[in-house]
């Protein structure tokens, strides 16, 4: 795939994973809140799995671009996305078989999401594949997500309401607005960097990016 095609596909997948996650989560939450109809809950689980498949697609495609920046670090991004899909699918299967949600199931999904997101946005920032303000927004969003997980587990806040939702806002704007819109409209910048002042050509790799 060309870099332009990868950018467009990743932009679409960001939108797909966000929309399916929103609707899937809402259907599962309705079941948790007392809706005994299993059909919407099942659809919700399937939508969450679809969201997970989309994020794995994002990870695999972005690796093709990020490996030129730092091969070893870039490899961890699709790994985290696969872990995210595994956790989400496991929680969904548990819900379908036991008719109850895994306690704090979303928080366990947020962990690989946040770690993978920090890797992605760091590499985007140092390479300037997208404008750095977009990368910074994503980095702040994923960092806030990881900060919110222990705070929620400790009972300090609830990530599903009030101040907890504020922590989700930067990441939501990155994944659902700025990153996909930029990729669909502009794609990746033709000249990337591995750090201040050094340009990467398509054949160059950053220090530490040699093949494993």
Structure description:
Helix content is 73%, strand content 3%. The protein has helices spanning 3-32, 38-66, 71-98, 105-127, 132-153, 163-185, and strands spanning 192-195, 198-200. It has a two-stranded antiparallel ribbon with strand order 1-2. Helix 1 (3-32) runs antiparallel to helix 2 (38-66). The longest helix is centred in the first third of the chain and has 30 residues, at 3-32. The radius of gyration is 18 Å and the shape is globular. The protein starts with a helix and ends in a 12-residue tail after the last strand. Residues 194-212 have low confidence and may be disordered.
Offer a concise description of the structure.
The chain has helices at 3-32, 38-66, 71-98, 105-127, 132-153, 163-185, and strands at 192-195, 198-200. It has 212 residues and is mostly helical. The protein is globular and about 50 Å long.
Largest sheet: 2 strands, antiparallel
Low-confidence stretches: 194-212
Helix content: over 70%
Note the beta-strand portion: under 5%
Q: Give the count of helical stretches.
A: 6
Principal-axes geometry comes out as globular
Mean pLDDT, nearest integer? 90
Strand order of the largest sheet: 1-2
What distance separates the N and C termini?
23 Å
Rg for CA atoms: 18 Å
Strand and helix order: HHHHHHEE
């Amino acid at each position: 795939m060309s870099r332009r095609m990868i950018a467009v596909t990743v932009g679409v997948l960001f939108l797909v994973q966000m929309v399916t996650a929103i609707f899937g989560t809402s259907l599962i939450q309705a079941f948790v809140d007392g809706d005994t109809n299993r059909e919407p809950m099942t659809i919700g689980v399937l939508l969450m799995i679809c969201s997970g498949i989309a994020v794995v697609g994002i990870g695999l495609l972005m690796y093709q671009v990020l490996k030129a920046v730092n091969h070893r670090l870039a490899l961890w991004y699709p790994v985290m996305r696969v872990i995210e899909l595994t956790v989400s699918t496991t929680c969904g299967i548990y819900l379908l078989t036991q008719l109850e949600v895994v306690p704090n199931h979303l928080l366990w999904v947020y962990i690989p999401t946040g770690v993978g997101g920090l890797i992605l946005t760091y590499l985007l920032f140092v390479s300037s594949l997208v404008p750095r303000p977009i990368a910074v927004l994503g980095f702040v969003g994923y960092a806030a997500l990881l900060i919110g997980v222990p705070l929620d587990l400790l009972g300090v806040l609830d990530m599903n309401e009030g101040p907890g939702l504020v922590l989700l806002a930067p990441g939501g704007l990155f994944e659902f607005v700025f990153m996909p819109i930029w990729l669909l409209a502009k794609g990746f910048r033709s000249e990337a960097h591995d750090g201040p002042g050094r340009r990467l050509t398509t054949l160059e790799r950053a220090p530490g990016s040699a093949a494993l």
